[in-house]
Amino acid sequence: MPALTQQQWIYRKQPLAEIGPEHYELVEQALDTELGANEVLVESRYFSVDPYMRIGQSSKPTYDSEPHPLNTVQGGAVVAQVLASNAPGYVAGDWVTAYSGWQSHAKLHASALTRLDPEQAPVTTALGVLGMPGRTAWFGLTESGKPHAGEVVVVSGAAGAVGSLVVQFAKRHGARVLGIAGGAAKCAWLRDSLGADWAIDYKAHASAATLGAEIAALTGGVDVYFDNVGGMVSDAVIPLINRRARIVICGQISQYSGGLETPEMGPRLLHHMLYQRATIQGMLARDYVHRMDEMRRIVAPWVKAGQIVFEETVIEGFKQLPRALNSLFTGEHRGKLLVKA
Predict the structure, then answer these.
(1) What is the pLDDT of residues 90-109, one digit of tens each?
(2) pLDDT of 1 strictly over 90
(3) C-alpha distance from residue 341 to each of 80, 146, 185, 265 (Å)
(4) How many whole angstroms separate alpha carbon 159 and alpha carbon 332?
């Protein structure tokens, strides 16, 4: 195979607020296609765009010991197709997923690949409902939230890749579910398509006090709070927790565009944790990588039977990746955000 032109987005400059193309450099170079033992050449088709990418750009340690290094390819999960293989079990045309980052082509060791079967589920589900977001939603809810039938589960960021799955998984546990999202259209989708019992547009509220009043009027109290957002929404929810409530901290997306370096004052609400003898637990998808097969055994049949809604927002064009990442924090998408090469 002749040499290919490889495109890469190189992370050059740490963002202090919103992220954009100015924090990256798009480079092109020839890629030698000669393969070593057990190497596979892949062409990226879909790129996952996720909030954790912005967390990794903090100058301070987060869940990684060090920030994402400058002057390297932006990391991220990808669905790709095999162009050539020098590894047993892989042939041209196979669909795979890998953590190969923002580059158009890559030579990877076969051990870095996971084969996908497009006949079992759309390949993009490997980046969504049957991938990291699905793992986050399932284990975050079931292992940390521990919902019971009849309990009230409140989900912030409920129209996102993780939140929209938490809403549906909680309903399958028999819970009553309140989804919080931005905009009337997203709230209607939560109720009409995902089956949420209630939905609240947080943008319709100027303060935590009025938001909290609406939550209280609808639910009467909160047993499980699955938090993807933090900020004002959490200020509204936490005073409403019931005895022995469980709070799952999955994300704090309201803090990512600026608040990573100088977070808002806190903690303000721990007295409610004391009064209600509640628990609060952070969870990361990486803690459950070894249980992916377990999650897929449960969720994949629901996906195949059309019993789970997994909406995708797909942005066309490799060059749109930095802008797509920033759009995570502006509420311009619903469900899982992907970039198609």
Answers:
(1) 999 999 999 999 999 999 99
(2) no
(3) 10, 39, 28, 41
(4) 11
